[in-house]
Every structure is written in structure tokens, then in C-alpha cells.
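Justification of resources, computational component.

The compute hours requested in this renewal are based largely on the per-chain cost of generating structure records like the one below. Each record pairs the submitted sequence with a full C-alpha cell output. That output is archived, and it is also reused by downstream analysis tasks.
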Amino acid sequence: MTCAVISGLRGGDATSRDAEGGVFASVILDWGHPSVEQFYADITHEAMSEPEFLVAAHRVIQQRIRAVYALDDTQPVSVTLGRGRGSCSQRLAVLEALARRHGIATRVTGLILRGEFWYPRFRRLHAFIPEYVLLAWPEFLIDGNWCDVSEVLVEPTETTSFEPFANAGAETLFDALSRAPIRWTEASSCDCLDFSEFVDEELGTFDSRDALFAEFGQTMSAPIRAVIDPVFRNWSASG
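The structure output for this chain reads:
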């Protein structure tokens, strides 16, 4: 049984939409903050192509931002960098902010996932996992085309099969998206990690993760986050 009392999701307009995205800073993607500027300066190189920059940025985030089970999806990127730790959602936000600082437009697709996607990671806490979880999945505008984050980060290879994603242990979703393409929608064939079975609803694309969470809220309500996030944001995902 899942615990519905901790859900903070609210209804919104889930009609089809095609957001334009952008490079503007926002409350979450506060790339003008000095800490974000410094992080960016440690990565960027004039000779890098846009995909090369994103690959390098993802790698540095993996190295410097420890994976934890933080719950606040609207936490500013500068706060995540200051703490040196973040959830998958928070680390994805760091990647988006760095991309925008580099002049690469981003947007997000809103996905409602069934909570059982996280059952393997929280084997003894199934009763406390929300029935539904809201995920902001980034897209980047590369050479005039919107590309899914895993499409950008995975280097072309002749391999057509990949080790399954266990969603347990040290490898988080943020880590996995760089080793194999990820698919959230059903397809007749997929040389990828296919997670479509866990998607309950697609909400369309949004100009920013700020816009997505402003309309639909967060997975957990604010009072619950205030109580348990101080513990979860220090709980390492690597065990």
C-alpha cells in the first residue's frame, strides 16, 4: 500500500503543449549566482561543441555533487552547489542551469511516474513511497532540434543491448542516463532502457522546471518535506 498522505501533487492542464524553452535564468535555474558562475568556469572550454560541453558538465556534476535523496524539486541550483549534494532532480537542474549559462536552450517534459519505479531502491519503505511521482525530464536545443538528455549524453556505440537499470545501489537515474538511451514512451523496438511501463501520464513540455512545478506542485506536500527533507537530503544514494 502506498502512502497518499504525503502527496503534494495537484491538478493542472495536462493538454498537449510544445514549449519554446529558453536560456533565461529562473528561481531554480539561477545561473547568474556566483557559485554557478564558478562551477561553469571550471567546465567550459571554447573549443567544446555543445554536446561535448553537456557531457563534460554531467561528468563534473557526478564527481562534485553527491547523490542523496533530497525532496525539494524547486531548490535553487546555487543551494545544491553550496551543499555539494543533491537528488537526481536537483542534479538535473544543475545540468540545465549550466546549459543555459552556456547559451543552450532547455525545456522539460513533465512525467507522472508510478511510485513502484523506486521500490527496488527503498525495499523496506514501500508503504511510504508516494503512489505517483512528478519528474521533470530535460531536453536541450542542439542544432535546431530538441534532444532528450540521454540522447545528448550517450556517445554513439555499436552496442544494441545495455545492462538493466536496477534503481538500487550507487547508480542513480542521473548516472544511468549517460550510459544508455532512456525511453519513457512505448515503442515497438528500443535499443535503450525502456521505462515506459512506469509512466502513468505525460504532461507535455514546459519552458522551465519552474513552470512545471508551479502548475502541478511537487510530489510531497510542503509540511511533509519540512519534516523529513533535513534527513533525506543527507542520506547518500550510494548506501
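The beta strands are 66-67, 85-86, 106-114, 132-142, 145-148, 182-183, 193-194, 199-206. The first helix runs from residue 34 to 41.
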